[in-house]
Amino acid sequence: MVLFCLWWLLLAAFRVFPQIDITVAELFFSRGPCLLGQAADYTCGHFPYSVEQGFRLLRETFLLLPYAAAAMLVWMLAISLREHGASFQPIRVRNLKVALGTLILGPGLLVNFWLKTFAHRPRPRQTNLFGGSLDFVHAGSFVGECVRNCSFVSGEAASAGWLFCLIFIIPQPARSALALPIMAVAILTPALRVAFGGHYLSDVVLGWLSSLIIFSALLALSQTTHCRKFSGA
Q1: pTM, to two decimals
Q2: Helix, strand or coil for residue 134?
Q3: Contacts of 95 (CB under 8 A, 6+ apart)
Q4: 26-31 CB contacts, 8 Å cutoff, 24+ apart
Q5: Hey, which bits of the chain come out as E strands?
Q6: Strands annotated E in 42-104
């Protein structure tokens, strides 16, 4: 509930102070000369990090990691469900189901299927503030001119937030070894989206946090169900 309330408070803050999104995007935008025939009030330039080969390769690598992690979790769940008796680990099975359920409900349905389809918020590089032609739209607004695969919220940030959630279900000693690399990927992924002009700060913060909210809700629900089973027994 705390994370859920925080999400709405952050959304309200980004709507009341839209300059936060604009100012952060400006940090990564490089102004340049306009082409002949462009309007006098047209802001010309580009996001330099988006054309750097090293950063593009890093982004493409990070993009594949959630798919690889999801495939591994499915394989682990299939193996765990085949175990019986003393070898069966109910907590492990529960955690794997929670993780996969979060991926489906969060980055899958909530973000990519619903918000990014119907929010219509243009990406920074699509707006007339940063070399595009569309008007800037506040976070959470559904009246933008973007047609498809729009900016609110970031799907990659949501997937990065989901990767961060995996830290809480990885058993020791693997958790100690993997926690820092996962945290690095979970932070760098949304940072690159902002640096590339693909998303505003609000898009990545709210997208990232949405996965934590769903993960926490499913985990709490599964723990409650687990306790009721034992109470009934």
Answers
A1: 0.90
A2: strand
A3: 169, 219
A4: 28/194, 28/195, 28/196, 28/197, 29/124, 29/130, 29/131, 29/197
A5: 30-31, 45-46
A6: 45-46
Question: Where are the extended beta strands (E) located within 84-207?
Answer: none
Least confident of 24-33, 84-93, 150-159, 215-224: 84-93
User: Under a CB-based contact definition with an 8 Å cutoff, are residues 116 and 157 in contact?
Assistant: no
User: What is residue 226's predicted lDDT score, i.e. its pLDDT?
Assistant: 55
**How many Å apart are CA 83 and CA 5, to the nearest integer?**
40
DSSP 4-42: HHHHHHHHHHHHH-THHHHHHHHHT-EE-PPPTT--TT-
Task: Report pLDDT digits (tens) over 173-194.
Answer: 999 999 999 999 999 999 999 9
Give the tens place of pLDDT for each residue, 41-75: 678 899 999 999 999 999 999 999 999 999 999 99
Partners of residue 134 on adjacent β-strands = 127
Amino acid at 33: P
Task: Return all residues near 3 (Cβ < 8 A) that are at least 6 apart.
Answer: 209, 212, 213, 216
Q: So what's the pLDDT on residue 44?
A: 87
How many degrees, rounded to 5, is the angle at CA 145 between CA 143 and CA 150? 90
Chain centroid to CA 69:
15
